[in-house]
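Renal dipeptidase, pasting as requested.
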Amino acid sequence: MKNAFFLKTINLPEELKLILYLLKGDKPRKIDSALLKDIDWKQFMELSLHHRVYPILHSKIKQLDAIPPHVRNFLSNQYKSNTLQMLQLSGVMEGLSREFALNHIQVIFLKGPALAHDLYGDISMRTSSDLDLLIPIEQLGKADNLLINQGYEKDDYIHTVLNDWKWRHHHVTYFHPVTKVKLEIHWRLNPGPAYEPFFKSLWDRKRTSKLTTFPVYLLSKEDLFFFLISHGARHGWSRLRWLVDIGQLLEQDFHWGKTQKVIKKCHYQRAAGQGLLLASQLLEAKLSNRMRVIANKTSSKQLAQQAIFYLERQVNLHTDPVPEEIARYHKSHLFSLMSIQQRAFFILSFLYPYPEDYQTLPLPKPFHFLYFPLRPFLWVWRKKRKHALP
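C-alpha cells follow.
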C-alpha cells in the first residue's frame, strides 16, 4: 500500500519477536522454523515473565512440539502458580467489596481478577500481583480504618506540603503480612496534574462483574479504554500485557463515540493514537475506520515508534533507581505525550510547593503559604548545594 506506515522493529530481540508472533490471533499458530533460529530460550522465558504474558503463551504453545519441553514446563508451572494467586485474589476482592459496601464506601475495582474475567473470560489468562481499588477521596479515612482493622499495614511513603498529595499522587499501598495480599487504594486513575473523569461520573457509568456472587464493580468499557490507554502510555507500554489488554477490549462491543468524548475531554488523544497503533501493528488488533483516523495521525506514528525504545531494552520502570539514560528518555517521552493544555498544567505545577521545600526550609504549618513565593529561591538553593557537594 502506498505511503503505508510500519513500525521499525528490526532491533527488537529475536525472542521478543517470537513472543509477538505467538500472541497474535486466538488460536495456536504454526511456527516458522526461521523464527526459532538462534533463540535464547532462557531469555524467552525471562521476557515472558517481564511482559506478564506467560499465561497466554502457555495456552498457545502447550501442544507445540517445536518449543523445547523445558520451556513448556516452565510456562505451565508459571500458569498454575498464577491461577492459584488469581483464585486467592478473587476471594479477597469479593470480601473487600462486601466490607466496603457494609461500611458505605463506594469502590470500583480497576484491575485484578475482575478485569481478567471481563477481558479474557478466564481469570487464569491474566496476571495480577495485587488489587487496585478506586474510591472517592473523601472516603479514604474510612477505608484506612477498615483496612487497618482487618490487619493490613499501610506503606506511608507519601510526603506532602499544602495537601499536594491529593493531585500529585493517585494511590496509597497496603500489605497484609499474613495473607501476603497487596492493595493499592486509588483516589485518581492517574497521578496529576492531568485531567480525568470525576469519581461520580465513573460510578454512574460502572458495570457489575459477572465473576462473583456479591457485586463487584468495574469501570464502563469506555472508561476502561481510557484507563488502559492512559496507564499503558504512562509506563511507555514497557510490558506487552497492557497492549494485549487493549487488543482484547477492542474485540468487545463498546461505544467508540462515547469513548472519544472521554479521551478528548481529558486530552488523551495522543496517547490513544499511540496505543491503538501499537496494538494494531504489533499484535494485529482490529481497528475500526474511526479508530484508524486517530492511529494514522503523524503524532501517533512518532509516539508509537518512540515506545519501541522500551521494548528493545526490556525497560522496567519499577526498578529503583531507574537507570539515568532510561529516566531521561522516559521524562522526555511523557512530555511528548501531553497535549498543549496538559503541558501548561504540568509546567504550572512546578510553582506549587513540594515536600522538598519544607525539608530545605522547615516552617510552622500556619506559614506554609510562604512556600509559594519562596519556591524559586529554594529550588535554586538546592541546585547550587547539589553542585557544590563532592
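Note for the archive: The radius of gyration is 22 Å.
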